[in-house]
Design a protein that fits this description.
Elements lengths: L1 H17 L2 H35 L4 E5 L12 H9 L2 H15 L2 E5 L16 E3 L2 E3 L6 E3 H14 L8 E4 L5
Parallel strand pairs: 1-2
Antiparallel strand pairs: 2-6, 3-4, 4-5
Helix pairs in contact: 1-2, 2-4
Length: 173
């Protein structure tokens, strides 16, 4: 998906610099096609996620609250382009409405330090791309797995009075 998105970005860039009437028409066509493809992919992902939750008898889905993800992005032009084009809000909306239909509860967790803290001992570890290493307990695991374990822990032990978790009562009476 990333390769396809990068290729369409390069094509869009060339067409925008051209500026002719046919280039503008092609841009409009490409834009609609890419939007439909992304929407389809997000529907497929959200459907698979909800089905997995139902198959494993999970009644709560926990996700990071990515509302302000685009602010303060540190990285090069390519990283900024990818994050600004990433349709995370659409994917979250699809997950929420499908969870509501399935009777699941969705919890949004503050994303601060979820990828930097060790899920085992809760000390700050070293994250190098896809690898997370804790110098205190010596655990070595995939950084996304470590972050997901932290999100699960925070969602399970959250206190609504502290405001750390925003509970969305989705489909739960």
């Amino acid at each position: 998906m990333r390769h396809r998105s990068d290729c369409s970005l390069a094509l869009r860039s060339r067409l925008q610099s051209n500026g002719s009437k046919s280039a503008k028409q092609r841009l409009k066509k490409i834009s609609g096609k890419e939007a439909r493809r992304i929407r389809h992919v997000n529907h497929t992902i959200s459907k698979a996620l909800i089905q997995e939750a139902l198959d494993t008898v999970c009644d709560i889905l926990a996700m990071e609250d990515l509302t302000h993800i685009r602010k303060g992005i540190k990285g090069g032009k390519r990283i900024r382009l990818r994050l600004h084009r990433w349709p995370w809000a659409q994917l979250q909306r699809f997950i929420v409405y499908k969870a509501e239909a399935a009777g699941l509860k969705v919890v949004f967790v503050n994303p601060a330090y979820t990828s930097k803290l060790c899920a085992t001992c809760r000390n700050t570890g070293i994250r190098d791309k896809h690898r997370f290493e804790c110098k205190v307990c010596g655990i070595l695991r995939h950084s996304d797995l470590n972050a997901s374990l932290n999100i699960r822990r925070i969602a399970a032990s959250a206190d609504t009075a502290t405001g750390t978790v925003n509970y969305l009562n989705v489909g739960v009476a």
